[in-house]
Amino acid sequence: LAAADPEFLTTHFKSHGRQMWEFANGIDNRPVTANPHEAKGIGNSTTLKKDAVTAEEAKKVLLTLAISVSGRLREAGQLAGSICVELKYHTFETVSHQTTLLTPTSTTGVLHQCACQLFDEVWNGVPIRLLGIRTTKLVPEDTPTQMSIFDFQVSPQSSGEVQAPASSVNPEKQKKLDAALDHIRKRFGDKAVTRGSLLIPPS
After folding, report:
1. Does residue 139 register a pLDDT over 70?
2. Would the CA dihedral through 65, 69, 70, 72 be positive or negative?
3. How far is the C-alpha of 156 from the C-alpha of 144, rounded, in Å?
4. d(CA 96, CA 136)
5. What is the pLDDT of residue 37?
6. What pTM was computed for the model?
7. Given this model, what pLDDT does residue 46 score?
8. Degrees to nearest 5, angle at CA 134 with 184 and 82
9. How far apart are CA 31 and CA 2, in angstroms?
10. Which residue has the higher pLDDT, 168 or 170?
């Protein structure tokens, strides 16, 4: 196309012929416009150096993936409305399981908890070669979200009084914790702070 006669192309393909010749020669006079790509999903996966053969091993990997995915969600200013866990067995068979979250989130703990629940529901005990977490149904982090009735419990000392469960983690405190960890990792590197459950015990 680049070496063809533009008049010949115009004769056979009308205005498209001229346009094809220009594009083939790197000619394009249209103004450059910035159209940022809006992510439809954010995820991460990893192929394990050694097959995971216990749920404990797999869930530690899911924690590292949840840390990565939640950090990318916060960096993009997004909340995830759905989460999917993918497993590839040592036989190379791939399975996945997903769920819709009651409330969109970018919190590491919530994503890890949901990922572990999905893992328990789908894993058949076969050694695992690859694990992945993917979030979809993204919404901006400033989108108003409606609290779920499952965020509360009925007090046994009252007749129907609803209160926050004592065992639950304060969402605002969790957001501040995640933001602080993001700041530390951005300034000092991803390995600057590590969760205790991921530390390798001394031999």
Report:
1. yes
2. positive
3. 31
4. 14
5. 60
6. 0.65
7. 96
8. 105
9. 22
10. 170
